[in-house]
Amino acid sequence: MPRVVASIEARMGSSRLPGKVLMDINGRPALSRLVERLRACEKLDDIVVATSTDPRDDAIAAWAAKEDVAVFRGSEDDVLQRVVNAQTFMKSDIVVEVTGDCPLLCADIIDMGIATFFANDADVVTNARVPSYPMGADVQVFRTDALTWVADNITDAAVREHVSLHFYEHPEKYRVIHLVAPPQWHAPRYRLQLDYEEDLRFIREVYGRLEPRLGGVFGLDEIMALLRAEPELTAINIDCEEKAVR
Questions:
Q1: Which of 66, 75, 131, 200 has its CB surrounded by the most CB atoms within 10 Å?
Q2: Stated pTM of the model
């Protein structure tokens, strides 16, 4: 069976919220929250954190050792090559691309993306390009050898920064399946990701309400039910701006 590995892109040097991936969310670092959710996935074989060699990221390497998570360190700027090298290190066949700022990522969505990939003749399965899911509830699945080809042949700076961008810019070369949220999950303006202080406050509020009765791996159904019941929570970070990707 093909080996499926989630690659978490994480570094401490975020321009908008430095150190966000290790910020405390109700007693645990954000990355620990994310890894707990990925470990709940039924269709993942392993997880690797792809961080940089910048000394600031020593903290991520130390966290990974404590949490017994595989870690690979590479270029801070060439994220594409860093992810490819991390996946080569893990001997993966299939990449599930994850960013380290998604501590509310839903295991069911990851499993759905992987299942869709294997059930279809697709090069990429994603819900990250056609807005329908909340931001930060993303899944992207593709083959390691396809990503390796991109790293070996494409020098465009945007592609080196945004790992899977080349796939989406060349629909004539790649069959991309775009997952669209069902009505109960359709909320493209909601932010479940960690980029701003307001996001951190929002995420802490969500965990504070749901974790005591559901544990730390509650899903998108529970998050959406909470936000429907308490719509004022979405006002905390709904005006934060998403960084544009071409």
A1: 200
A2: 0.96
